[in-house]
Amino acid sequence: MRLLDVNLRKVIRWSVNTDFPDIIWSPSRTFGILNPLIHHALRKRQLPELEQMSVFSNGGVDVLITDSIGIMLTGEKTDHDVFDWVIDRIPLLVSCLRTASGQLIINPDTMSVADVELTDLPSAEFRKDVGVTQAAAPATIRESAITPDDMRLALEYFETSGPPSPRSMLVDALHAYFSSDYKKAIVYAAIAMESVGATTLDREFDQALAEGGGLQRFRVIELNQAGGAVVTKDPVFSLLRESIKFKSLLHELSLYVRNRSLLVENQGLYSQALRVYKTRNDIVHHAEPRGPEDSAALRLDRETSRTAVDCALSVCQWFGEGLRFGLYDQRNLTYDRYPV
What we know:
globular; two-stranded antiparallel ribbon; 8-stranded antiparallel sheet
């Protein structure tokens, strides 16, 4: 067995409850991500002086905090194959994990990679009867820990076209907010709303046509082309889509495709989304909001950038882009802390 031991030199939080498999395989089963408890045990076996890690337990959730990822490769791999993983594939996989889980600080910028041959895997267990202490730590430790489902989603992203841009924009908006880059947080929040809305409506329109239901719902016509070809087209959808404005994504086009309108269902959120988008346009075209006299624009401060990101999360959820992560609760919780 061949293991790529990836040290990101950044904190990574893993949810390691008992249902965590030893290895979570990619859909193609050409590689997998090792259970982080097993990976940590392997690293301790190879590096006895390795710094002790801890599992933080609260509310039935066990979270291992490490700085590394174990990637298991299947089949015969040449040194060139491993080099390709280090240069291209690991950065993409880390980006997919970041987007799937919303754990904002992980990135491959300072990583190191060791290529290790394995003959066996140790146990993934840790003891809860020795060395337990109490620790106060942020709720984010529990809320943002990478789960097996996050890993499966990341592996799906990896083997398709990488992390989807709309979801990546939401993660970037969150990261900008927590980094106090309020201008970037507002811009990314607006782009996330627009891209989620557009991709959702395109997908649902195409799906309805493919399933046959759209022929009754939409204004679909058939146009004869030269050579006898016939093209199916909806001129109403095409007109709305090609001349699209952001507010039309939330109202007219959404009403046409989904029979739902954010303006009708939640006028407050609709108005807030338009303010975020207007502020984004001001920043893009004029480098900053037009000024305090413009009541439609948001200010560039922590409170209003949080409002913008919250608004983007809510609009994206309205479009069906369900996210587990968000603007996490910043209060501290009391954890049981176990050495591993």
